[in-house]
Every structure is written in C-alpha cells, then in structure tokens.
Design goal:
heterodimer; A: about 325 residues; two-stranded antiparallel sheet; globular; disordered N terminus; B: about 325 residues; mainly alpha; MetI-like fold; two-stranded antiparallel ribbon; 15 helices
C-alpha cells in the first residue's frame, strides 16, 4: 500500500496518467480487491476521529456510567470508586429535593416551547423569503441571535432583563405603560375565558423573548429549504391559480417537511443540553459539591429520557414527511 | 414582454389589462391588490416588532456602556444617557484584562477551529464516500456525540487530562491549551459531531463523477480528497469555520473546567462580577447600588461580543449563504 502511494505522488496526475496506472497495476506488491482497498481507505479517513472518540468521548462516557453506580471519592493522584449499586439512581428519584421537580419543569418547557419555536421560525422564514425592500437587513437581524445565544452574554442578557423588570410582554408594556396583553384580551371581549387560558396566553407573551432568541438556526434552515423548492412547482401552482394559502399548504409545507424533523430534533437537543435549564443546573450543582456518583446518575437518567423523547418524536414525525423521490 | 419595464410603464400595462377585464375579474384583481397591501403593512409591523425584541438587549448594552452610573437611577433616562462617559468602558476593559484575554481567545479559537474543521471534513468524507464494516455503528457514535451534553462527560475528561498518558508516564495537561487542541485535532472538539454530520451530508451531495474522473486519472483517494473535493467545498468550509469560531468564542463551560489560569473572554465575563467587586464595588468611599452595577455588566457584555459582532457584520453573507449550500439542505 505505501509503495503505491509514493508512486502515485511521484507522478504528476495530469501527465502520463494511463502509463502510470498500467505501471501501478504491474508492480503492486499487495493484491487487494478494489472494494477491499476502498474499505481500508475509509478506515484511514476516519482513523483520526476514531482515536479521538475513544479517548475523549467513549472512555469518558463509559467512566461516567461507571461512576453512576459507584461512590466516588477523589484522593490525591486518583479517584477511588466503591460499588454502590443502584443507590445513586434511587437517590436521584426518591431523595433529591430538586431533581424530579427540575426534570418535570424542563420536560414541560421543552414540550410547549418546541412547537412554538418551529411554527414561529417557519413563519419568519416564509416572510423573509418574500421580496421586499430591506430584506437583507431583516435577515441579518433575525440571524443575529445565532452568534450570541450559545454564550455567557446571553445569560447576562436574560438575567439583566429580569433584574430591570423588562422582559417579553412587560418590555412593551413598560414602554406604553399599559398591560398590553390584558388590554388586548379585554378589547377582544375575552373576559370569561377560563383562567388557565389567560395564563397560557400571558406566559406565551412573556416568553416571546426566549422564542425569538432561540430560533435563529431554525429560521436559517427553513429559509434554505424554502429556497430549494424547484421553480417548476411554483410555476405549476401559479398556472393552476393557487392562492398563497393553498400554495403554503400544498407546495411549501410538503417541501420543507423533512426540515421540520431536522429542526425539531435540533430544537429538542438545544433546549435539553442548554446549560441554562434547571436539570443541568442541578447536575452541575451536585458536581460542584463533589457528589460525582449522584451527578453522573442524574446525567444518565436525563440523557436516557432525552434519547427516548427524540426517538419517539422522530418516529412519529417521520410518518408525516414527504420525501421527494429522485 | 420586454426585459425592462419601468414602473410607470408597468402601471400603464396594468391599466390596459384592467380595461379588458369583466367587472367580476376587476373586482377580484382589486381585492387581491388590497390584500397584498394589507399584508405588506402587517409584515412591516411584525418584522419591526420582532426586530426590536432582538435588538433590544444590544441597544440597551450600548446605551448602558456609555452612561454614568447615576443615570441608572434617573427615570427620565430610557435609551439616551444624560451623562456620556467612557470611564465605565475603561474600567471594564481593565478588570477583564480584555486585550490579554482577547489574544488568548483568538489564538485558541482560530487555531482550534481551523484544526477541527479539517479533521471533521476528513472524517465526514470518510463516512460519506467509503463503505466499510461497522460504518453504521460508527456513525451512530457520531450521532451520540451530538446528543450527549458535554456536562455528562466533563468529569471523567478532567481526570483524563489531569493524568494524561500511558502507564507510569503521566502528564498534567490541565491549564495547557492542549486540552482544547487535542480534541479539536481528533475531531472531538466543541460540537464536532454536528460538524462531521454537516460535512458528511455535504460530500454526499457532490456528484460521484468528480471522484471517478480523478480515480481514472490515477489519483489516490487522499489526493482526490485534497485536489478535487476540498476546492469544491470551499464555501462550506468557510461557513463551518465561522460557526466553529463562534462556538469556541462562546464556550465557557469547557474552558472553565479545564483552565484555571488561562483566561478567555468568556470565562473573564463569568468572573467579571467578582473582579469588579474587588476593584470597584468594595471601595468604601463610593456606594454603588445593585442597579448601578448593571452598567459595568452591560459594558462587559458589549466588549465580549463586539469582536464576533464585527465578524458577523462583515461576513454575514457567508454565515447564511453557506448553510444553504452546505449539506444540511439535502
């Protein structure tokens, strides 16, 4: 194999291609079938990653699983583990005061936030795909959160907005010094609506800040999908006299549906792995208190739930997706 | 119709067309035009409103950075400061050791991103174009890398780096930049799973004929990758690189786990509060309320996103267009 390579390098590719190939065939020291050789090259390409993954991902992952069944103590020079069975898991579920509550809160939040983010980002993508003056600027503004939202600045932003008492709907309310959502509901004559409904609406309004800020990548992906709709489909719809409503449901929606799945998974992962959610906070808290066994057990419970959630969601959504057959 | 129609001509054409239509048709056209106008108005309102929600924190940051702390207590000051000053900015830069941290961060960021983009591209290409035993299983591991939060493996990773090596030959890598460079070099850095996935999708989307032609010309797979595939992937390389820079820039979890002395902008921002407490807030001569401290915190935010913001302003096209061309679309 190595002889092969040097020979290949020695010859300029553009010159004497045929003769080089013939020569190579004659002198090849190791006779392997084409498929076999390609297989080896495949391993070659991913070898660097395999080493890294073993060292920096799989072994640490296995270790953390091991820690979750053990009592872990850090002694100078090494960490000592002592088999503790399922007690750490038992602790996480039945004894820890915050973990189950945090878990419930995070799951619920993801459950209602994800669809909202998806609908919102699809809507914005459709709007940003239309032609109007200042579109480039609008796009630049809507993608801006992408570069900020993963960092510590975002924490400060959301934190400080809380401390100054301006957030979401309140933010506008203080500007116009009215209770915007309340006024709107009164204006629409919604008094008798159940308390719950009112609460939901105001939570949504309060969270508009979070939703807008966490849908940058989703908008980007949807926009890319929209631009991939073939012009022929557009023309056909126009000739048939489709209204824009029909166009959205019959053309746009089927074409972007694979991206709904991609975006869904992306959103779910993003919200589950964000260091700002309460489960993550609890895990980090346990870790900083040197309770590594408990922290690992919690992390694993959480991770398995996330995995199951993503599996179920993608299985369900996959059934409704339209894939264009090439 | 001719290629170029000026707006007045367009109006003429429309008028002519309307004259030739029946009353019902005319009404229909008018209704459509009206709906379009209403929609245009709504679109404007929606975009402005949401744009404000996004820009609000940034405007607030800028406004806070250049005001004196007394302005925080002045209810008439909403956006435009009464007393303009650069003192807050200067003090924040000093207490964050901004220029030093910037140098470290840039060295770490750009180096790691560069190395990681290359290693992820090579891996992605391997997954996209070669058939080997266990490919599906190994790709499952890539997906796992995306799914597993870093927090889960950070502790074992810490011990790994603390006692790095084989047998009795151990080195302490904590606090050296190798803790960032080694994973990046082996396609295991920040969000590398996602990057491998992007590259795999992208290379899968390129026509196979490209490589077949190179193979027939006697080019080995590795040279084919460098000479044929990489030039084709240039724009998606740039996009992934830019995103990678942003992710490294924003990371504070990994850097605060592995670094105790090395200072990046993100970790300095995390520590800004305590640093400020030592330098300014604890001075018994001046009383600073919690509300007034926001000025410094916002200034810290502003200077720590300013570099990426600048990059975004100048390279915005590559951030957005690259995604469209990169593999995620197919």
């Amino acid at each position: 194999m190595s002889g092969n390579k040097t020979q290949k390098k020695a010859h300029d590719v553009s010159e004497e291609k045929r003769s080089a190939a013939a020569e190579k065939n004659g002198r090849r020291p190791l006779r392997l079938s084409y498929a076999k050789r390609k297989e080896l090259y495949g391993y070659g390409f991913i070898s660097l990653w395999m080493i890294g993954t073993l060292m920096f991902f799989l072994i640490p992952l296995g270790k953390s699983l091991w820690y979750s069944f053990n009592e872990v103590r850090i002694e100078p020079g090494r960490s000592v583990t002592e088999w503790a069975g399922l007690s750490k898991y038992d602790y996480a579920f039945n004894q820890d005061p915050k973990f189950t509550l945090a878990l419930e809160a995070t799951l619920l939040e993801t459950l209602w936030k994800t669809p909202l983010i998806l609908i919102f980002s699809l809507f914005i993508a459709v709007v940003l795909n239309q032609k109007f003056r200042g579109r480039a600027l609008a796009r630049a503004i809507f993608f801006l959160p992408v570069i900020i939202v993963t960092g510590p600045v975002f924490r400060v932003i959301s934190g400080d907005i809380n401390t100054t008492g301006n957030m979401g709907a309140d933010q506008f309310s203080t500007m116009f010094s009215t209770d915007l959502v309340g006024e709107l509901m009164q204006f629409l004559g919604i008094y008798g609506l159940s308390e719950n409904m009112g609460e939901i609406i105001s939570t949504v309004a309060d969270n508009i800040f979070g939703i807008v800020w966490s849908s940058g990548i989703q908008i980007l992906l949807f926009l890319a999908a929209l631009q991939n709709i073939p012009p022929s489909a557009k023309e056909a719809a126009q000739i048939e006299g489709a209204t824009s409503w029909e166009y959205f449901w019959k053309i746009t929606f089927p074409y972007v549906s694979p991206f709904i799945l991609a975006n869904l998974i992306f959103t779910v992962i993003d919200s589950f792995t964000s260091p700002m959610n309460s489960v993550m906070e609890r895990i980090l808290e346990m870790k900083s208190e040197w309770n590594f066994g408990e922290a690992s057990a919690m992390a694993w419970i959480y991770f398995l739930i996330v995995l199951a959630a993503i599996g179920v969601v993608s299985a369900v959504v996959n059934k409704f997706i339209y894939y264009e057959v090439d | 119709m001719s290629d170029k129609i000026t707006p007045p001509e367009q109006r003429e054409v429309k008028k002519l067309r309307l004259q030739n239509m029946s009353a019902a048709e005319r009404a229909c056209v008018r209704r459509r035009d009206a709906a379009e106008k209403i929609w245009k108005f709504f679109r404007f309102v929606i975009l402005c409103g949401l744009g404000f929600v996004i820009l609000y924190p940034l405007i607030y940051m800028i406004s806070c950075t250049f005001r004196e702390r007394n302005d925080m207590n002045d209810p008439t000051v909403m956006w435009i400061p009464r007393n303009l000053t650069l003192d807050v900015l200067r003090e924040t830069i000093e207490s964050m050791d901004f220029w030093g941290a910037l140098k470290t961060t840039l060295f770490l960021n750009i180096g790691c991103s560069l190395v990681q983009v290359i290693s992820c591209a090579v891996t992605g290409y391997g997954f996209a174009r070669f058939d080997f035993k266990g490919r599906k299983l190994l790709f499952g591991v890539v997906i796992m890398m995306i799914l597993v939060p870093t927090q889960v493996i950070s502790l074992p990773l810490y011990t790994q780096f603390r006692y790095f090596g084989i047998g009795s030959l151990k080195v302490n890598l904590i606090d050296s930049m190798l803790t960032m460079y080694l994973p990046a070099l082996t396609a295991n850095g920040i969000r590398s799973g996602l990057m491998i996935l992007i590259f795999r999708q992208f290379f899968k989307g390129l026509p196979r004929e490209l490589e077949d032609a190179a193979y027939i010309d006697g080019c080995g797979p590795f040279m084919t990758f460098i000479r044929v595939m990489v030039p084709n992937a240039a724009s998606s390389f740039l996009t992934v690189f830019l995103f990678s820079v942003v992710w490294y820039w924003n990371d504070y979890y990994i850097s605060s786990t592995f670094f105790t002395n090395t200072r990046t902008i993100a970790t300095m921002l995390q520590n800004l509060d305590s640093e400020l407490k030592m330098r300014i807030f604890n001075d018994p001569k001046v009383q600073i309320s919690g509300r007034e401290q926001i000025v410094w915190r916002q200034a810290g935010c502003l200077i720590s996103i300013a570099p990426v913001l600048l990059m975004y302003v100048f390279l915005q096209k590559h951030f957005t267009e690259g995604i469209e061309r990169s593999g995620l679309v197919t």
